[in-house]
Amino acid sequence: GAGVSQSPRYKVAKRGQDVALRCDPISGHVSLFWYQQALGQGPEFLTYFQNEAQLDKSGLPSDRFFAERPEGSVSTLKIQRTQQEDSAVYLCASSLTEGATDTQYFGPGTRLTVL
Amino acid sequence: GQNIDQPTEMTATEGAIVQINCTYQTSGFNGLFWYQQHAGEAPTFLSYNVLDGLEEKGRFSSFLSRSKGYSYLLLKELQMKDSASYLCAVRWDTNAGKSTFGDGTTLTVKP
User: Cα distance from A110 to chain B (closest Cα, Å)?
Assistant: First the structure.
């Protein structure tokens, strides 16, 4: 595809449910990032992959959050036992190389609402 | 910490010029990005600065002073479609690929 895609675009979960959010980066992009964006705030870094390797997961807020990118392309962010404070937009971004100055291209996000 | 500070809101008139400021902690700085984000949409890249000075790109320009920990985004000939949130994001040299975003400046352009 032409850009980063994410699915689902909207997800409503009951507290305690597990959810899985998918990201399809731009084909050939080495780096992939997950961010969490609360209403009225900027994106907050969650985790970073270089190909299939998860090089930084310092932003994951708890051990209920887990991300993977097993073949170095599609990535899944999984949240177990969702809580109301997990409600946010989850953004995925990819960049062509592993360079720190490379432009990140963002997907449209998944808006998660936990009831 | 690695605080990124930007004004929360700004208002300007169509056709005018507006400057959106961003300040950040200088230690470990490795580049600054500006993104535009319309409500309900993904951030889109506007500019990147790593050296001091002004980078001009059409109606948008971005300035950086590394020693002062300061950047601004300058928008000229404002159009109604420029109403959006403008996010300042800093890359750090200690975390490969990690960027810290400010909370964004919501710009409202009025006729």
Answer: 10
Closest CA to B33 of B87, B89, B104: B89
Tokens at B82, concatenated: 């420029």
| C-alpha distance from B100 to closest chain A C-alpha (Å) | 7
DSSP state of A84: G
Question: Any CB–CB contact under 8 A between B103 and chain A?
Answer: yes
Residue A85 contacts B where some CB pair is shorter than 8 Å: no
Looking at residue B104, the DSSP 8-state letter turns out to be: -
Q: Is the pLDDT of residue B29 over 90?
A: no
A91 at interface of B, judged by CB pairs closer than 8 A:
yes
Q: What is the pLDDT of residues B65-96, one digit of tens each?
A: 999 999 999 999 999 999 999 999 998 876 56
Residues A27-77: pLDDT tens digits?
999 999 999 999 889 999 999 999 999 998 999 999 999 999 999 999 999
Contact present, A93 and B35 (Cβ < 8 Å): no
Residue A42 main-chain phi, psi, to 5 deg: -80, 165
Which whole-number Å values give the CA distances from A48 to A56, A93, B1, B31, B101, in the listed order?
Answer: 5, 10, 20, 18, 15
